[in-house]
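seq as requested:
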Amino acid sequence: MKQLYYLFLLSAVLTVFLGCGTHDKPPMLSTPVPPPHNGVFVNGKDTLWMNGDGKTIRWHFENALPEIGQSGKGEYVFLFSHGKYRYDAAEYFRIINTANGNAHCQFNLVLGESTPEGFTLIRNDRGNKTQHFAKVKTN
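struct tokens:
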């Protein structure tokens, strides 16, 4: 009986060690890093202006976002789990209102749909609907 207990304990510990950390690292990509977004990206009446530096952004959303408001400027980052990552394999997109104490709004991304020409967000504030921002103009 004691051996069965130790076998169960060992299998539980191994399961925890093998299961932890397998999904918290970004995928290894063999392709070159894509250029940062540069230009005006639109979906309906919502607009994002990305300056091509991979950091600064302006936005205007038809309906205000609780955290950052309807219009503003600040920074953005693409994330995998909690770390910054390249947008073509990121899980999240965060807009940061640096003028308002670093308030931010984070969106899920539809994987595989982030390219230099646009990306698709999952808008939790609109019932988890997707919203594709397509590039309409380069700076």
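The chain has a mean pLDDT of 87.
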